[in-house]
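Open question from group meeting: does this chain pack into something compact, or does most of it stay loose? Before anyone orders reagents, we agreed to write out a predicted structure and look at it together. Recording both the input and the output here so the notebook holds the full record.
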Amino acid sequence: MGFRIFALTLAAVVLAGGWAASCVIWRAAEVGELVGPLAPRQWNSLTVVAVGTGSPYENPDRRGPSTGIAWQDSVALVDVGRGVANGLRLAKIPVSQPRRVFLTSLLPENLLGLDDLLYTGWRRDRELPVQIVGPVGTRAFVERMLAGYGQPQAALGSSLGLPDAGIEVEVVEAGEGWSDEQDGLTVRAAAIDGGPLPGLLWRFEAGGRSVVVSGVGWGDERLVSWAQGADLLVHEAVYVPPPEDVEEAGVIADPERLRREGELHTSLLDIGELAARTDVGTLVLTRMRPPPFYDIQVTSHVAQTYDGRVLIPEDGDEIEP
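Structure tokens returned:
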């Protein structure tokens, strides 16, 4: 009897030890995936990466607006909302890999992650400058931001021996007709007005495919002409409830502010018709904000006026046009 108890105890200890060891290995792999260095990625075709699909409002499931355009070994970001470094990690893209940022406007929601991208990527030994292309006013904004980090930046670089070029920034202010081509990826800008700030639409073309990214809710007619025939359109679809619905729900809200917010965005109720007029093959909806509709509710409504493919990506998703 004593031997049987001893044997059973020994077996239990071995099993427990094996289980504990497997837990340690699993946890180490999980931690490595969460914080370990990532190898630079490559793409064989033009790809849209949903780095951040949220809105200016807090949302634990969606980071601030940022859309990646990946081609071969390069990644460009259209807007850099809050939590962009975490969004890149989720997409398994090193934060030091994006070398270009294209801004749709200087609204704060598009800029909150810029210092995150610059300084987190610098810590990951980015060795080349970052180019930031945006509307008039971008240079002044970036210069003020960098000036604010001047002394802390110098202290960090000196303490860790970080490469000087990795924190350098090249700013380009673009307008109607601006274009650029690098390694087979062509980028073109269209200016839009009618809003509180200058806005830009961006069109990316490579490998026979084309993607248009919009980040503002005004300038519909310019968008329709600019996006004609593109394979994919990335655009917002915001539902701003009417004041009477908010009151029925028992929520206190300023009706005038709701009206003003609606004017800044493309409504979920209108995006299908707008996309149909552009004749794009795929519509990708981002900048999602509460209330938390089910995807089927959104796609079924949009499908009433648009017969192309409608996608609502999660952060980290990748889409080929």
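Observations to bring back to the group:
Confidence is low (pLDDT under 50) at residues 26-31.
Residues 1-36 form one domain.
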